Amino acid sequence: MSTNWTHPLERQTVNQAFISYLVPSVLGMLVIAFNFIIDGIMVGHKLGSTAMAGIGIASPVYTLFVAMSLWIGMGGATLYSNHMGRKEHKKAKEVFTKSIILIALITMAIGYTAYTFKDKLVYTLGANADTFPFAADYMNIMLLFGFVFTIENALSVFVRNDGGPNTSMYAQITFAVANIVINYITLYVLEWGVRGVALGTIVSAALALLVLFSHFFKKSNNLTFTRFTWSTKLLWMIALIGFPSFLAELGMSVFSVSHNISMERIEGTDGVASFTVLNYIHGVVLMAFLGLASAAQPLISYYHGAQRVKRVQETIRIAVKTALTCGLVLLLIVQVGASYFVQIFGNFSNSVTDSAVYGLRIFTIAYVFMGVNFVMSTYFQSIGNAKMAIWITAAREMIIMIALIAILPSFLGVTGVWLAVPLSEMLVLITIALYYRKRSLTERLNLLQAK
User: Fold this and answer.
1) N or C: at which end does the chain have fewer Cβ atoms within 10 angstroms?
2) What φ, ψ does residue 155 adopt, rounded to 5°?
3) Which domain of life is it from (predicted)?
């Protein structure tokens, strides 16, 4: 790195910086999301709804590994950007080294341990006799080789925060394109079934990892490995700051498992299949919101470390307005095109199609609130307010959602299942508004007392 090097965030206005991160972040995430959509279309047309349900049941394992990678990756990258904002380059490199080594060790330990009781795990996740073979084939590959995409996922966050959002996007595009090609070969040429889909994910992640390695050869690169030394304090800081990201992804596992179990009880295998279709579509929206939050995170972390308060506030205003606009547009699109979106995944029975369309039209109300909640959680995480970030994430994806999905179906049937997430997102946004109102009143009282 040149001694005259200046971070891009110092050279750009907030609008310019946000757009420079927003475009590659959202595009990269959407490419990944559409990759999963195409996966779903391939599986649905080639293997049918039962195979789709099996993958849906096993998907929490994939989500757990992503959660682990984001826990350490986001925690480490946020701390990394804070140090870079303070010009503490040596500390930033120490954070990077410890984060990458830690995520590799943790995910390998979890995967190999879970593999020893893999069959029990599949049934615990909600499989029945029909879906077990498909769920087991997918999950076993993930447990054995999932550490590859956890390292790739964590490194992608660091590369983005190190001023390489485009490189991160190229890696995501590489993953998506490779995954589509490999899945076509394994499904239609080799006919390896669900096992081939899982292998495609691992191989594609390895190729994306090679793209990310190119960042290390750039003059602007600050990501260099240092000698690993154990530091409980530093590892605790990484874990604490990144914990909301872990909860967010783990919440997706809770979301999938709770909805799979509820739909299986109410509508059987057809219900699980209809939710799996919804989950594929929902995944696109989640990735878009994640891309939006990911664009804001490096800016907030860096500006906070550099004590540029006005720039932090401006970043939040831009991100919240963008999230709200996107949420309303997405709601309108899905309301109008729900039937079309469901039919893309295959020629399902009327019960599966009708259930998925009905669920989509109710469920997508959540998008009006969800994007704003994503942004606010990222804001609190980026400034080190882990307590509030954890509350937002845990409440919207676990505490409130689980309570609603446990209670509402007793009164509303399947409608209660679809309403759980929209109501949860709305209630969490209300708590954020109340938090800000209380903080504003406290600040005014402090000013009056100071006078």
Assistant:
1) C
2) -65, -35
3) Bacteria
- Helices 386-394 and 232-305 pack at an angle, to 10 degrees, of 90
Tokens of 339: 């039937």
- Could you state, in order of their start, the residue ranges of all structural domains in the chain? 8-450
> pLDDT averaged over consecutive 10-residue blocks of the chain (451 residues)?
61 87 87 77 83 84 84 90 86 91 92 90 87 91 92 93 89 92 93 91 95 89 82 85 82 83 86 86 86 89 86 92 93 89 79 88 94 92 86 90 93 92 95 83 56 50
pTM of the predicted model, to two decimals? 0.77
For residue 130, the Cα-to-chain-centroid distance in whole angstroms is: 29
What is the DSSP-derived secondary structure letter of residue 365?
G
Cα(187)–Cα(18) distance, integer angstroms: 40
Residues 87, 88, 90, CA angle at the centre, nearest 5°? 135
Distance CA 386, CA 344 (A): 40
Contact 400, 420 (CB under 8 A): no
How far is the first Cα of the chain from the last one, in angstroms, to the nearest whole number? Answer: 49
For residues 218-233, one letter each, b for 16 or more C-beta atoms within 10 angstroms of the residue's C-beta and e for the rest, the string is eeebbbeeeeeeeeee
Q: What is the pLDDT of residue 96?
A: 93
Question: Cα–Cα distance between 168 and 161 in angstroms, integer?
Answer: 10
Distance CA 209, CA 150 (A): 10
Give the three-class secondary structure for 225. Answer: coil
Which pLDDT score is estimated for 5?
Answer: 55
Alpha carbon distance 318, 96 (integer Å): 29
Specify the pLDDT at position 450.
54
* Dist. CA 254–CA 249, nearest whole Å: 9
